[in-house]
UniProtKB/TrEMBL annotation:
Protein name: Homing endonuclease LAGLIDADG domain-containing protein
């Protein structure tokens, strides 16, 4: 993929995006997700067109708010995108989180959905490191 596109997408992630570990079902294991929100449909469609994922319209919190759009991609798709964008990320915490996911999650997402006790312990350790600078997540 063109380096200009990758650098631009990394800039969008640095400014408007999030690199997350999200539980997709109650009590389930967290998985990598990338999200980006914008009031510009062109920006979220740029991400979808170049990297896949999905786009949705956000519900307005107040009538006077502008319409906003969200792009997201998860699991293996998020890993692929992070591998492409990581060299271009400039925001320190996002770059740290991207490296942590890239280095650890390829071996922590079993294709059969079965998590061994060893995998669960490794996930727990990665999550502690991932969220160490977060004030919102309680481990």
């Amino acid at each position: 993929m063109d380096k200009t596109i990758l650098a631009y997408a990394a800039g969008l992630m640095d400014g408007e995006g999030s690199i997350c570990l999200i539980r997709t079902n109650k009590g389930g294991q967290r998985a990598p997700y990338l999200t980006m929100s914008s009031t510009s449909i062109e920006l979220v469609m740029f991400m979808k067109d170049h990297f896949g994922g999905s786009v949705c319209i956000a519900q307005k919190a107040k009538e006077k708010h502008s319409e906003a759009y969200h792009w997201k991609i998860g699991r293996q798709g998020a890993l692929k995108v992070l591998k492409l964008l990581a060299p271009y990320l400039k925001e320190k915490e996002k770059a740290r989180r991207a490296r942590l996911i890239i280095e650890n999650y390829p071996n922590l997402l079993p294709k059969n959905g079965y998590y061994t006790p060893e995998i669960l312990e490794k996930i727990r350790q990665v999550e502690i490191e991932f969220f160490k600078n977060s004030t919102k997540v309680k481990m």
